[in-house]
Specification:
The complex is a heterodimer of chains A (117) and B (403).
Chain A: E1 2-10, H1 11-15, H2 22-38, E2 42-47, E3 55-60, E4 63-68, E5 76-85, H3 89-97, E6 105-111
Chain B: H1 2-25, H2 30-51, H3 57-75, H4 80-91, H5 102-109, H6 116-126, H7 132-139, H8 143-159, H9 169-187, H10 205-218, H11 223-237, H12 262-276, H13 283-300, H14 305-318, H15 322-335, H16 338-348, H17 356-368, H18 372-385, H19 389-397
Helix pairs in contact in B: 1-2, 1-3, 2-3, 3-4, 6-9, 7-8, 9-10, 9-11, 10-11, 11-12, 11-13, 12-13, 13-14, 14-15, 15-16, 15-17, 16-17, 17-18, 18-19
The chains are: A alpha+beta (117), B mainly alpha (403).
Chain lengths: 117, 403
């Protein structure tokens, strides 16, 4: 069973990337990725650049409607994602609980659709 | 034909939940399991009158339901890795032992990933076989709305693969509490009501009691399960005395013990004793103990308010809910300790403004404090918040006359 773990962080948490705490911030994520890899559950995953680097596009009346910024203005924003392969939701939640942003934000755990092929 | 039909009904009552749980366990697909079991029962009604009743009726039903599920899975190309599992099951002897996975099913229904508001409905449908219409009427929603909620919840369980497992030791207490809270909610008594729920919810009381009784069988070493059973039985015992012949609301102190159901009281007492012997006190046991003291009035002729106050103090220490504190204030008032009742009530005042029992107790306290005008306002507030016409009428009759 594959689940996507969507890592949501508060703005304050994400801004740590740009401060003296950057080492600690990235160190925590590296350790998390290593743990996922060691357990052989990681399918793929990426960190994302900060929400302010995002561009959002909608189509309205056949025209492109492009905006600067993420899809929704919210206190917590997507900072990265992982797709993991585990047996059931409880195992996925266990991995989610160990993510560095679990306390300063949260993780959405959603099952991945089976391949369309 | 009759005897086969009766036997099928009896087996349905006894084994349906076990069959559904066992079939759903491997795939977390409750809906398909329920359909397969329903098909198996239909097949039984067709074949048993003709071929005779099998040696192991539950095993027969399990095999037929399993075969039905396998056929269904073969039709959908996604589930190919599962047809292996089920194919194995059909080649086993029909006398195979039906694993009891009902406990796992309870925990699935009350899993943290399932919305609190649908947990009890899920249990009522999957364990008890109630249809959406029956459940909907108790929750005062349309059958379509309830059906939709149940479908959505079962989809969530299947698609996100909530496992059919008994929680690990470190989680067991919390997960059990979630199951018990859901059942208690269905019973209709919220933790907050002092002496009885609204008549709208009484329709599920028997079903909720059945669910807890089932839990005592499959989770026999849980003191809180026994505590909840005792709590619900004490409350149900007094149900016949809550309204008089004219439908008027009768408060707890005035309820007639001669109308109480003795067999429920005896069973409740026994359950509470068994719980106490496990030395694992919890909120449901304390609430049951409080109800036991109330019920003892049937024997002694009076209520030991001192004991009730002590029990509430214990309950508040464990679980300081607004309901418990309001009920404690009421008990203190009955005991005659007006200053302490006032202190307790003031403590929760800020968060209890929309809480009906708060106003009912506040009103009685104000009467005791001889603040007639404020009492009048409090009674009106309590009446306005009451969602039971009989309770509202009672409160309005309590309005002080000397104004």
């Amino acid at each position: 069973m594959q689940y996507m773990l969507m890592m949501y962080e508060t703005n304050e948490e994400m801004q740590r990337r740009n401060t003296a705490e950057a080492g600690a911030y990235w160190g925590a994520w590296s350790a998390y990725v290593e743990a996922l890899a060691a357990a052989k559950v990681i399918v793929n995953g990426d960190g994302l650049q900060l929400p302010e680097t995002a561009t959002t596009l909608r189509m309205q009346n056949g025209k492109r409607f492009v905006q600067d910024g993420p899809f929704a203005e919210a206190k917590e924003q997507l900072g990265g994602y992982f797709v993991i392969e585990v047996e059931n939701l409880d195992q996925a939640l266990e991995w989610a609980s160990r993510a560095p942003c679990a306390a300063a934000g949260g993780i959405e755990v959603r099952p991945v659709l089976p391949p369309m092929a | 034909m009759n005897s086969a039909g009766e036997l099928v009904s009896q087996i349905a009552r006894e084994s349906r939940a076990k069959l559904v749980a066992s079939l759903a366990a491997r795939t977390s697909d409750i809906a398909s399991a329920e359909d397969a079991v329903a098909e198996a029962f239909r097949a039984a009604l067709e074949y048993w009158p003709v071929k005779g009743i099998p040696q192991n009726p539950a095993g027969w039903l399990f095999t037929v339901a399993t075969r039905r599920l396998t056929d269904q899975f073969r039709k959908t190309s996604h589930e190919t890795e599962l047809t292996g599992d089920y194919a194995d099951a059909t080649t086993e002897s029909p006398e195979n032992y039906l694993n009891d996975e009902r406990l796992q099913l309870f925990f699935v229904c009350a899993h943290p990933g399932i919305d609190e508001n649908v947990r009890a409905a899920l249990m009522l449908q999957t364990i008890l076989g109630l249809d959406a219409e029956r459940i909907a009427s108790a929750y005062l929603v349309s059958p379509a709305a309830m059906a939709k909620r149940l479908v959505r919840a079962k989809n969530k369980i299947r698609i996100s693969k909530i496992p059919f497992v008994i929680p690990e030791a470190h989680e067991l207490a919390a997960r059990t509490t979630a199951v018990l809270d859901a059942i208690y909610g269905a019973y209709g008594l919220g933790h907050d009501d002092i002496d009885g729920g609204t008549t709208a919810h009484i329709g599920l009381a028997d079903e909720a009691i059945y669910l807890v009784r089932t839990l005592t069988e499959i989770l026999p070493h849980s003191a809180e399960v026994l505590g909840l059973l005792a709590l619900m039985l004490f409350s149900a015992a007094r149900a016949p005395s809550r309204r008089n012949a004219d439908g008027d609301y009768i408060p707890l102190q005035n309820q007639d013990p001669k109308l109480w159901r003795v067999n429920f009281i005896l069973e409740a007492d026994a359950a509470l004793k068994r719980a106490a012997a496990m030395h694992s006190i919890g909120p449901f046991q304390l609430e049951a103990a409080i109800q036991a003291v109330h019920t003892a009035r049937g024997v002694t002729g009076k209520t030991d308010w001192g004991a009730i106050c002590e029990l509430y103090a214990g309950l508040i220490e464990l679980q300081p809910t607004v309901g418990a504190q309001v009920a404690c204030a009421a008990a203190l008032l009955q005991k005659g300790d007006i200053p302490l009742a006032r202190t307790m009530l003031d403590q929760v005042s800020a968060v209890a403004q929309s809480y009906q029992p708060f106003w009912a107790v506040a009103a009685e306290l104000l009467i005791a404090e001889k603040k007639t005008q404020e009492a009048h306002a409090a009674f009106r507030r309590a009446a306005a918040l009451a969602n039971d016409a009989a309770a509202r009428a009672y409160l309005l009759r309590r309005l002080p006359v000397s104004l």
